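Weekly structure sync, notes
Attendees: PL (lead), two postdocs, one rotation student
Agenda item 3: pending single-chain targets
PL asked that the sequence for the first pending target be pasted directly into the notes so everyone works from the same version. It is reproduced below exactly as submitted, 213 residues in total.
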Amino acid sequence: MPIFDDNVKKQLSDLLSNLKNPVKVLFFTQEFECPACSDNHEFINEFSSLSDKITLEVYDFVKDRDTADKYGIDKIPAMLVTDDTGTDTGIRFFGVPGGYEINSFLTAINDVSGSGEELPGDMVERIKKIDKDVRIEVFITLTCPYCPQAVATAHRIALENPKIKADMVESSTFQHLAIKYNVSSVPKIVINETREFVGAQPVSAFLEQIEKL
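Predicted structure, written out during the meeting:
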């Protein structure tokens, strides 16, 4: 049973037709796939076939441990969006970016391809000044219409600074983390496990929290 029907495939193909540079998606799963891994595998197989500018590489979380460690992958299913050389952009998806979240995945592909929207210059300067390791986790549900904006904002920040990693975390797939961080409403943003806020906030709100670390 395909993930996308013909109508959705046509829409996605049209949206991907403007990609500027090739991108690569690294997908981490395991030999005996959990249901979420299997769903994610089907999703990215279909999605990556919609554009010749997207290359898919599949890795085994156990057998390809060196690659997982290189990119800081600590759980699966996981996807990274990189340029065509595999340069780590800090843009990661943990869980299937389905439902509304397909929008943040499309945005990530566009941003890494170089066909996304530019950030204001003053925001870019602030992001580039951050000189500590930062991990932004954005907890989402697939039925939340506000979550993709929060994910896209976090990813856009990560794209500007190699010290920053930004994760979409699908709450039902990683319930233990949702419980750990008391995720009762989404999007919930957790930064370096110490600072947190809720809602689709602008870039400046993310930076205010990061700069307080």
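Discussion points:
- The longest strand covers residues 23-29.
- The beta strands are 23-29, 54-60, 78-83, 91-94, 134-140, 164-170, 188-191, 195-198.
Action: rotation student to compare against the earlier draft before next sync.
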